[in-house]
Write a structure and sequence with these properties.
Elements lengths: L2 H15 L11 E4 L3 E7 L1 H4 L2 H28 L1 H7 L2 E13 L3 E11 L6 E10 L4 E3 L13 H21 L22 E5 L9 E6 L12 E6 L9 H6 L8 H4 L1
Parallel strand pairs: 2-3
Antiparallel strand pairs: 1-2, 3-4, 4-5, 5-6, 7-8, 8-9
Helix pairs in contact: 3-4
Length: about 260
C-alpha cells in the first residue's frame, strides 16, 4: 500500500474513533415564524425540581409570546427591514447558581435579544426559589429589616458600590466608576440589583450575596455585565435567625472566575 493510501486510511480510522459530538440542547419552549425565532432553555438541575421547572417554563413561555407579538407588529410596520435583515432573535436560559441549606435555590436568568438594533443586547435577572414553600421569595427573610433607604439596604448599596469600583479598576474602566453610572442603584430591594446567594466553602451555606448587572446598568455597553460580591460578614449586624443559619464560610476561590 502506498504512503498516501496509508495516510488516507489512518485519517479515516482516526475520524471513526473521534468521540461523538454532543447534540445541541433542545429548547424547552420555542417559536419560529416569519417575525421571530425565540427559545427558552432550562438546565438539568432546574428540570429535576418539577415545581421550579414549571414556574420557570411558564414565565419563559409568556416572555416568548410577548416578544412574538411585538415582533409581528414591527414586521407589519416595517416589512422591508425583516426582508433585509431576517427575523428577530431571542434566547432565554435558566441555570442553577447555588443551593443553600438544601432549601434556597438561586437561579440565573440570562437573555439574549437581537431586534435589528445597532447590536444585539443581553440581560440578566435572578430568581430565589424556596423549595419548601414551592415559590419565589426575596432575600427579606434573611434580614431584620429591608425598608427602602433603611440600614440594611443602605449598607448593602455602599458595599456594592465599593465592589463595583474595585472591579472597574481591575478592568481598566475606572473612568466610569462615577455617581452618574450608579444613579439607578437605590437602597431598595427592587433597585439594588439582581441578587443570588453565593456558594460557600462551608457545605450548605452561603458566603454572601452576588449581584448581577447587565450591560448599561452600571456602565456602558462595551463593559458588558458586572457581577459583584458582598460577603455575609458585611451584613452580619442585620441578619435574622434564618439569615444567621444560612450564611457562613468564605466564597470559593473559583466562584469569581465562574461568574
Amino acid at each position: 500500500m502506498t504512503p498516501v493510501r496509508i495516510m488516507g486510511l489512518a485519517g479515516v480510522l482516526a475520524f471513526l474513533w473521534l468521540p461523538a459530538r454532543a447534540a445541541d440542547p433542545k429548547p424547552d419552549a420555542t417559536i419560529k415564524n416569519a417575525s421571530i425565532e425565540a427559545s427558552v432553555y432550562l438546565d438539568d438541575k432546574i428540570k429535576a425540581d418539577n415545581a421550579l421547572a414549571a414556574d420557570c417554563l411558564a414565565e419563559g413561555r409568556k416572555w416568548i409570546d410577548k416578544n412574538a407579538a411585538e415582533a409581528a407588529a414591527d414586521r407589519k410596520q416595517e416589512p422591508d427591514l425583516f426582508k433585509d435583515r431576517g427575523v428577530y432573535s431571542f434566547e432565554r436560559k435558566y441555570s442553577e447558581r447555588s443551593v443553600v441549606d438544601g432549601r434556597y435555590v438561586s437561579v440565573l436568568r440570562d437573555d439574549y435579544m437581537d431586534t435589528h438594533g445597532a447590536h444585539p443586547n443581553s440581560d440578566v435577572n435572578t430568581i430565589l426559589w424556596d423549595t419548601t414553600a414551592k415559590k419565589r421569595i426575596s432575600i427579606r427573610p434573611f434580614f431584620t429589616e429591608t425598608a427602602d433607604n433603611g440600614p440594611t439596604l443602605t449598607a448593602m448599596r455602599k458595599a456594592v458600590v465599593s465592589a463595583l469600583n474595585a472591579e472597574k479598576k481591575r478592568r481598566g474602566a475606572g473612568e466610569t466608576a462615577t455617581a452618574e453610572w450608579y444613579k439607578e442603584l437605590k437602597p431598595t430591594l427592587l433597585r439594588i440589583g439582581a441578587v443570588t446567594l453565593a456558594p460557600s466553602t462551608e457545605a450548605g451555606k452561603s458566603s454572601g450575596l452576588t449581584l448581577h448587572y447587565p450591560p448599561y446598568a452600571v456602565g456602558p455597553y462595551a463593559e458588558g455585565q458586572y457581577v459583584v460580591f458582598v460577603p455575609w460578614e458585611t451584613l452580619k449586624p442585620y441578619l435574622t435567625a434564618e439569615g444567621a443559619k444560612v450564611f457562613a464560610g468564605a466564597r470559593p476561590k473559583g466562584d469569581a472566575d465562574d461568574q
